[in-house]
């Protein structure tokens, strides 16, 4: 496919190395169901176990603490509804934030329907939650706190380690959605002080249909799904062996290259912004520029409108987005930007998210800046006349 | 290699695999994205859904893609139970369902639902009358599998569906995981409200499946988030898997039209061979069973030992459901059928695909004739 793909926060291309590792588990070389006791079953079991070790090592966990799922959304749901339902007898209060991914927000909404009380912490204009607001919200009957690690729309990094530190005394379970941060930040469950952590394969150049939930030893959850004995009964169903194997490979590549990738992302973003400056495009960055993921920026282009901007860029072969892809194809103003700037700030209707990754290069950044300059100029003119 | 464990999992068709690779590596957009990469993938998703809907003669909005059979069964059963809780709390299922149905029902019992587990006769089938007798005020769901995963026994789901048409308040779910592309089921006319499919049982990929949800049937989702799959199943769609599933479903249905009689004949032949041997008891009813599953109890011989010995000869079979086969106990299905006897602890399952032929079953019989007397002899010496 030609064109410039700058939507790596939505999904990423599968690396050829990942595909090569998956292939024998797809083409009949190793056909088994890991629960079967014949040789092919045992081979499949070993492959799943090896991937589990790779994932566990990448976050400083032990392999019994990794539960494979169908992806990030399922992991978030399992963590949040699973923890709350398991601890219902201990309390009724859950804390989250206003800028979480919809998988978290809608899992929390489900808990509210079931009678739980959920506090959604605000963020300041930099997109970051203040520790004080968490401490204010924390109650004796708080059973779960869920705060994402790196935001999927702005890249803002939340103070997970500090929050975890505060919660250690309290005893509420602490979950973080690390789907976006896993690919470019160091993610270590001991450093972050978390009990539950979500990761997804297709955001790190692995296949779709695989994710994991880190479940710290002795953290009890109610499963979402019931059935066989797989994944220590926390996630029954025949293991998606090829996707799990691909996930393991993607994680191993990531561990080797994480620092390098983060540096490349920073370089691309810097190049893009420098080129925008050279083109004299008026823009403002949304959210913290210090405490952020290296592969995501959220940019406000004053005097433009998000939707036509995306459409025009798309026509020119540049794929960017308005925010989370998971709002099922519809354009809605970003709840993340609204939480940062308020519902009425013009920024929330004239900003786009740009996310870089595997396959991008400097020349693409220059070309993107050129296209943005051309399109925003036209838009400002048209909209200015209205 | 002789692979006779197709009820546990199948090898993807090369065509399905090509499709998967092409989509995974070329069309990597997120179908929910607004840009061109997103719209191309959205188009592929629509095509896949259409092709499946055409085969099943249902509407495209009646298909919800899932991560597999276990999720599909859970979504159907928990989904109906929680969405219809205000109308009643009684559920009817059978004693021989897959663990993903039985365990879900047991969970619902803990949540205050009442579940009736219908018994089966010595052929492994429930009776229509027992469903009728169990239906009562407050029954909200009946969940019966089409083809049993261990014995291949076909349950009278079309008759049950017909009868439930007169109970408007009761939703009817069919676990069609083993029956799909092997034993036809008329979704449109048989009164089925929900029906579970799993991709890797018909040469699609693991991690893929679908749930048929008749238009107008309300479910509570299991997984909340971005609202994909009409809000019934959030999460980025596993597009390569879904497109491969549609491909495999079409090919597997074509194979059904071509080869169903051959497969049924092969089954009969193997049953007749096995029957002649001393201490071999066939648990698969000769009529009213799927063409691809044969279950036999070999008395006096532990199934794990036979499986290991066959594996050494590169023949791969299994005992009971892969989803419970690591537990060292009798098969729940065979206990329901025959009681807690030796027969329930000695079941072996041979399961075919449309490529299985005589060149697979002849070596199997030969190997059994060598292995079984040997194991029995060793046992005799020991005792």
TrEMBL record, chain A:
Pfam families in UniProt: Aminotran_5 (PF00266)
Residue ranges of every copy of the Aminotransferase class V domain listed in the record: 4-366
EC number: 2.8.1.7
Top-level EC class as recorded in UniProt: transferase
Protein name, as recorded: cysteine desulfurase
Alphabetical keyword list: Iron, Iron-sulfur, Metal-binding, Pyridoxal phosphate, Transferase
PROSITE patterns for the chain: AA_TRANSFER_CLASS_5
Molecular function as annotated in GO: cysteine desulfurase activity; iron-sulfur cluster binding; metal ion binding
Catalytic activity: (sulfur carrier)-H + L-cysteine = (sulfur carrier)-SH + L-alanine
Top-level taxon of the source organism: Bacteria
Cofactor requirement: pyridoxal 5'-phosphate
Family that this chain belongs to: Belongs to the class-V pyridoxal-phosphate-dependent aminotransferase family. NifS/IscS subfamily.
From TrEMBL, chain B:
Source taxon at top rank: Bacteria
Database matches in InterPro entries: Aminotrans_V_dom (IPR000192), Cysteine_dSase (IPR016454), PyrdxlP-dep_Trfase (IPR015424), PyrdxlP-dep_Trfase_major (IPR015421), PyrdxlP-dep_Trfase_small (IPR015422)
Keyword Iron-sulfur: yes
A GO MF term: metal ion binding
The protein's required cofactors: pyridoxal 5'-phosphate
EC number of this enzyme: 2.8.1.7
Keyword terms, alphabetized: Iron, Iron-sulfur, Metal-binding, Pyridoxal phosphate, Transferase
Domain Aminotransferase class V: 2-363
Stored Pfam families: Aminotran_5
PANTHER family linked: CYSTEINE DESULFURASE ISCS 2-RELATED (PTHR11601:SF50), CYSTEINE DESULFURYLASE FAMILY MEMBER (PTHR11601)
Family: Belongs to the class-V pyridoxal-phosphate-dependent aminotransferase family. NifS/IscS subfamily.
Protein name: Cysteine desulfurase
Organism: Geomicrobium halophilum
